[in-house]
Amino acid sequence: MAEVKVKVQPPDADPVEIENRIIELCHQFPHGITDQVIQNEMPHIEAQQRAVAINRLLSMGQLDLLRSNTGLLYRIKDSQNAGKMKGSDNQEKLVYQIIEDAGNKVGTEFHHVGQAGLKLLSSGDPPASASLSAGITGIWSRDIRYKSNLPLTEINKILKNLESKKLIKAVKSVAASKKKVYMLYNLQPDRSVTGGAWYSDQDFESEFVEVLNQQCFKFLQSKAETARESKQNPMIQRNSSFASSHEVWKYICELGISKVELSMEDIETILNTLIYDGKVEMTIIAAKEGTVGSVDGHMKLYRAVNPIIPPTGLVRAPCGLCPVFDDCHEGGEISPSNCIYMTEWLEF
Amino acid sequence: MTQAEIKLCSLLLQEHFGEIVEKIGVHLIRTGSQPLRVIAHDTGTSLDQVKKALCVLVQHNLVSYQVHKRGVVEYEAQCSRVLRMLRYPRYIYTTKTLYSDTGELIVEELLLNGKLTMSAVVKKVADRLTETMEDGKTMDYAEVSNTFVRLADTHFVQRCPSVPTTENSDPGPPPPAPTLVINEKDMYLVPKLSLIGKGKRRRSSDEDAAGEPKAKRPKYTTDNKEPIPDDGIYWQANLDRFHQHFRDQAIVSAVANRMDQTSSEIVRTMLRMSEITTSSSAPFTQPLSSNELEFVGKSGDSGGGMYVINLHKALASLATATLESVVQERFGSRCARIFRLVLQKKHIEQKQVEDFAMIPAKEAKDMLYKMLSENFMSLQEIPKTPDHAPSRTFYLYTVNILSAARMLLHRCYKSIANLIERRQFETKENKRLLEKSQRVEAIIASMQATGAEEAQLQEIEEMITAPERQQLETLKRNVNKLDASEIQVDETIFLLESYIECTMKRQ
């Protein structure tokens, strides 16, 4: 290194040399170097020469220009990545960078900045809150347009190109079925986009949910049956008919009916639907931290129950279920005397 | 009174009492309280008939009267009381289960006659029971009066308000209408009667010669010449007590379904102990299972723990369960899931409904709108901006149980009216056939009495052809089915009415 320094001592305006030096410096500090650092290392080189060198490196795709809180940073670009971008032009690189940015929101403090020559962009996304999303949501094509200020047709062309090169992928959002979000090819899309375990290819898996529903209910029902048959003290009977969410989860996992890995929360959402069906009731008891399946000192217990009244009287008469109830009156087209529903019901 | 209720009342009055009473009754229900002359004038019936009709209605506690200023007496009909007539079969059945046949007949007589003196009831019931018993046995009055006393003790029958005995001689003219008073304490006091006697078996008219009944009759009247000891003390069936009993039954069965047999027994004991008094005292075992029920709560620790049953909450959950079952039967189990979800969460957005209920978005939306259009649910708007722009407001779905219960109740009334009409229609259609079968039966009976031969009987029976017999069978079955269904719908009415009453009282 000292030799290099010595060599640079005389006014050496060799741009290649400068570039090499900068690259070496970047290697030294993989996190990125500020302008200040470069200046310190090569004090004799003018700002303009520096800028030219940096520009060249950037255009060659060997340096990344980032902006952090303290100023501009230069970072060596991953050679692998650099290889990928060969053959793409500036605009594509820009779009790719934007998409990568969206994917790298988690844990980065830096914003990608466009190349010199293109306007500086302010992405305006607070980095800290992005990391809370705990997942990668991808970026919408309209956002890409805003960020890069490129016209729509260009963007579409570029996106198609990138997709064909297998650098990015489009994921259909589950919330709005027409909307596509883009993200890097190898990243996992977030739950909010794909819908999590219950969706496959953005289609809600009703059958899957139904099957799980029935399985959980059968498990709880059989537990209640065995408890009832044991004919012990009612308190013990009641207690043994309870199952914790952890038990249900283990049972379902062992059944092996699901190809997707299900977490305990998933099972709890299924059990909640059973509660809304009126077939299951839930209690929360305080459990010691560390007992299996307890979350925050609580444990949820589930139990199969019967409905508290049998189907009510009104629905046993045809009038209770009649779709033309409001039109029915004596002497009209539809009246009790000629009601076909009643006739059918009476013949039953 | 809604149209549906008025229609139902008119059908009931017509069926039980006839056209004239129905006309007067419906007129009174529609127009509120009116004096005698106005009623006669408006309905166009003669004064005499109006008086008779009113007598019938008053006797059955369907119409009450009041003296207004200037000495005008006004009559007022109680629509709710008329609707209770639907429930008579249930009252009679309940008494049968509790007090067996004797009690059943007592209550039946009281309901059919409105008001009766105790001796009259006892005599009638004994006569009826004697008829159904084997030859030679007769029903003892004492047994009947025992049952009567027991009914009075458990408050199933109560005394009617009576004219107060004025000790000071009132020199003025007697008031146009007596004001009836009844002392709280006296309501269930049974007068000390010593009714000795046995039930008289009614002899069939064929055994007597034509002349004999006339001779017998003076004998009967001489028997009745003795003043009845309890003249003026009339008894009626205490409907509120029956309602209380039904309510307790509903709660106990709900507990049995939700928990197990033993906890339902505990709840039943608690309810029974509070039958006469309203508060409950400590049961002997600790009902630990009462944690999950909303009905039972702890209210103090004296005597090892005092427990109360929260009746309002019990009725609320029963009414909610009724609503849920109606939604389930009408719209499907997924709709029921959404309904329960909205009930539990009180206010919820459409997006959240999809997430919680695990139902695809499109179907969930469809179901929510359907329930909204049928008024089971309502929307609560929460605007984000001062101009209530639809794109910038939150729309939350919510269920208002009281209004849904009222809506369902109205539907029940209309359904029962429909069922009664259909029953009448069916009967009218086959009137010819019914009359024919009645004639044939009468002929057969008379021929049997005069000792006809088998062959002749056969011939006459064959007057009714096989398909006609079939038709009669179908008719009977249909009428029974419609009747049974009326009673079932009435059960729903009872639950909903009790809930609405309880909630209104609280407010």
Overall description:
Chain A is α+β, with helices and mostly antiparallel strands and 348 residues long. Helix content of chain A is 45%, strand content 13%. Chain A contains 16 helices and 12 strands. Chain A has helices at residues 2-8, 15-28, 35-41, 47-60, 79-84, 90-103, 127-130, 141-148, 152-164, 191-194, 206-229, 234-240, 245-255, 264-276, 318-321, 340-347; strands at residues 33-34, 63-67, 72-76, 111-112, 139-140, 168-172, 180-184, 199-200, 203-204, 243-244, 280-286, 298-304. In chain A, α11 runs antiparallel to α12. Chain A is elongated and about 100 Å long. In chain B, α12 packs across α19 (466-506). Classes of the chains: A alpha+beta (348), B mainly alpha (507). At the A-B interface, α11, α12, α14 and α15 of A face α10, α12, α13, α16 and α19 of B.
Mean pLDDT of chain B: 80
Mean pLDDT, all residues of chain A: 72
- Count the helices of chain A. How many? 16
Helix content of chain A: 40-55%
Most extensive interface: pair and counts?
Answer: A-B, 45 and 57 residues
How helix-rich are the residues of chain B, as a percent range? 55-70%
Strand order of the largest sheet of chain A: 1-3-2-4
Please report which band the strand proportion of chain A falls in: under 5%, 5-15%, 15-25%, 25-35%, 35-45% or over 45%: 5-15%
For the sheet with most strands of chain A, the description reads: 4 strands, antiparallel
CA gyration radius of chain B, whole angstroms: 29 Å
Distance between the termini of chain B: 21 Å
Placed side by side, the strands forming the largest sheet of chain B appear as 1-3-2
Number of strands of chain A: 12
Rounded to an integer, what's the Rg of chain A over CA atoms?
33 Å
Cα end-to-end separation of chain A = 100 Å
Q: What kind of oligomer do you see?
A: heterodimer
Which residues of chain B sit in consecutive blocks of at least 5 with pLDDT less than 50?
Answer: 167-172, 202-226, 276-292
Keywords (chain A): DNA-directed RNA polymerase, Nucleus, Transcription
Main location (chain A): nucleus
Protein name (chain A): DNA-directed RNA polymerase III subunit RPC6
Family (chain A): Belongs to the eukaryotic RPC34/RPC39 RNA polymerase subunit family.
